[in-house]
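Our collaborator T.R. sent over the components below with a one-line note: 'Predict the complex.' Nothing else. No constraints on interfaces, no templates requested, no preferences about which chain binds where. So this is a plain run: every listed entity goes in together, and whatever single assembly comes back becomes the starting point for the next discussion.
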Amino acid sequence: MDIHSLLQAVQGFLTNEIVLAVILSSLPLIFVLIYVLFVLYTEMKLAGHIQDRVAYMRTGWHGVLQNIADMVKLLLKEDIVPDKADKLFFRLAPYVTFAGSYAAYAVLPFSSIYIGANINLGLFFLVASGSLVVIGILMAGWSSDNKWSMLGGVRSAAQMISYELPTSLAIVIIAMITGSLNLQEIVKFQDGGIQNWLVFGGSLPLQQKLFLLPFTIITFVIFLVSSNAEINRTPFDLPEAESELVQGYFTEYSGLRFAMFYLTEYTNLFTVFAVAVSMFLGGWSSPFGSFMSGPVWGIFWFVVKTYVMVVVQIWVRWTLPRVRVDQLMYVSWKVLTPWLLFCLFAVGFILVI
Amino acid sequence: MSAFGSYFYNIFHSLYTVVVGMKITLKHLFQRSVTIQYPTVKKAIPERGRNRLFVNIDDCIGCDQCAMACPVDCITIETCKSTPDVDLGMTSKNTKKRLYVSQFDIDIAKCCYCGLCVWPCPTECIVMTDVYEFSEYDRHNLIYSFANMTADEITEAQRKLKVYDAEQAAKKAAAAAAPVPPKPEQPAPPIT
Amino acid sequence: MLQPPTLPTNYTIKPGHIKTSTGKTIRTEEMIVNMGPQHPSTHGVLRLEIVIDGEIVRECIPHIGYLHRCFEKHAEQMTNYQQVIPYTDRMDYCSAMTNEWGYALAVERMLKIEVPERVEYIRVIMAELQRIASHLIAVGTYGIDSGAFTPFLYTFIDREPILDLFEMTCGARLLYNYIWIGGLSHDLPPKFIEQAKEFCKYFRPRLKQFNDLLSYNEIFVKRTANVGVIPKDVAINYAISGPQLRGCGVDWDLRRDDPYSVYHKLDWQVQVGKGELGTSLGDCWNRHMVRMREMEQSLNIIEQALAGLPEGNVKAAIPKRIRPDKDAEIYVRTEGSRGELGYYIISDGTASPFRVKARGPAFVNLSVLPEIARGCMLADLVLIAGSIDIVLGEVDR
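Returned assembly:
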């Protein structure tokens, strides 16, 4: 075995299709893990400063190592499965939920050269994988032998299903304007500067854009609201309403399984705002047109725009009280959906004439 | 307002109040936080602060007023009378001490920090200090003993008291048994 | 022996049936759920046994007694009347000054002791400061119950100056032992008046900010409006008092209607729920707003009392051994932060009381919960229990 054949073997190994696919598809996983630490720190610190207090000062300088400490603590906890719980589903639920939310990373356009799977049904796939998350939550709520968890799981399922409708309608509006469900195509449609962003009407002739402008802005706002409800964040965090259901559907979970649920929440957060950014705010394209644009800059813009949206969401979370279940349904079915249908007709009308 | 109008009003009013709320939290985001980093920075305790008790046992006259005033009975005092030949000294208020204080225990875990024991003390020897960090690992360490007599001294004092009492009792018995001496002649009162 | 309250013995879980569109019937069942003694939002160790049908509450039975500490028995064991005061503090620990005042007032009336005017004014200032502090806890935790975590922190920051004022005066931040029989334990320290005036100036805009952030927020209004409505006659029949009664529209405040101390000399308004903004009288929102507005009125009272504070002694001439007549008994009621706080004292001629009964307003106010919780949703139940503003120390004593 000499060095030459060894190197050849390694090269063959790395350029093997399957191995390459595995490596490339685990890049978002690494990104997600690092990103979650970052966003957890941001959330706690922002929450602290909004509430006129400092959060996390002890571990590391101003608490930067706190999340690593939290993760280590969660990993070291005892593995408890309740006696009467449905053991298979109890053990399976966190992974199903995480798989559902991580599957969406396959179609997120991180940059012009990197997208996991450049499929023509990108947005459709996203909505479908969101439903897998619902299954996971229902499994978690049902299998822990706890009435409160079941209530939380059922509430969450109802919430997510009813908010898939406004999300899908917003996607349809975008698809009408850009003519494609492929996220990479949608971002390319918005390439060229801030005036081309879909929230301002997209790269269409100016006349059409002026008419489209109010409807795209309304669509953007409604998409943000419904995506908040999709990911169970305040003001729509009934399934995990601390003051009512202790911890909702993941009351009985501890240790690594709880860490998976926690991870899922923040993964979902990124996904949903990444989609919002790709669809409305130009994805990986730079707002200055050709200045600071390119494949590597693409990743930078994508992450920064999503991060700004996440910060806005954290700001909203720590301001507003929670909405009740029936009011949640009212908002979805009687407010968001009619307005989106109206926007749909209006956009269709404007595009046709 | 018609149902149609109230529907629109509700939506816009909700958005407006949400924006108002967000403005307030944004303002607070940029204000200084009020947290002080406790072990390194500590707030000053005011002069009248009621925290851990301290007894200056040299001033204690063993009057038991503080133990009687305590609503939770956390002070245990045992005293022993001293014999006249012993000089226990003066308190800071210039009164003579007449009692040995053989036990002065305060169970600070029971104490409710009401300060009722401080008021009746005639020599102001029991005070509330500004110490509030006195956690212990063992509950028995929270019974503070302020008396400073050793066991030998206590037994010695009790023995001396017994002896003195016996002597006094014997003297009294002798005085009662002995014949009364005749009264001396009174001189004639001066004639005014 | 008294049995704890339970569901009626003839209560059976009602099975139900839902017919689907294909003609099949699905059997449904009510669930008995426990909102246990340990729960993030029952404001203490309160156990609520709830029968729910999906999301609708059918029955709700509170089980109390987890914080019973035998206050009334302890009061009988004390060697004198003054020693009971630290125990009265600990009943409603969020509002200790009003507890002490009620008891001291009862004993003073039994012995017919007149306290100096300065003492009356200082007691009013302390009680109103305490009322603000107690209402701040109530509305802050109410925000948490409804999901807004930030207002709670703001109210606790606002409480700090009040607790600093108390610490400056009597040495303790939560349980004071300050209002004694016949006066007060200490006179006001030199810096008290200016610091109190600073607090009043600081606090008014904070109230407005809190209202903007939470009370008038549409989501909060929608959640608390028309929820847990107590009709006027039900409120009066259940002997409810305090902000809960005033939120139902009943204009009754003991500080004005059964006056004690110098409240009649100060200019302030009793705050009554008005049912504005599409809410109905007696619902959670009106109770919440009555508390917010009461805090403002308390500020007015404090400012006037500070301005009109007379000079004088803070300890009246009381006998060294307080010994009321044999078989003397008295019931005195004051307006505590949660309602009518009453003390019924029976004396047997010795230095320690024969019987001290405390009428805790939170205990009586909680008794209306099963009545108003029927038919509401589970999320509403939390808000209703929060709007009653219970402190378990007072419920259980």
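Summary for T.R.: Chain C has one domain: 71-357.
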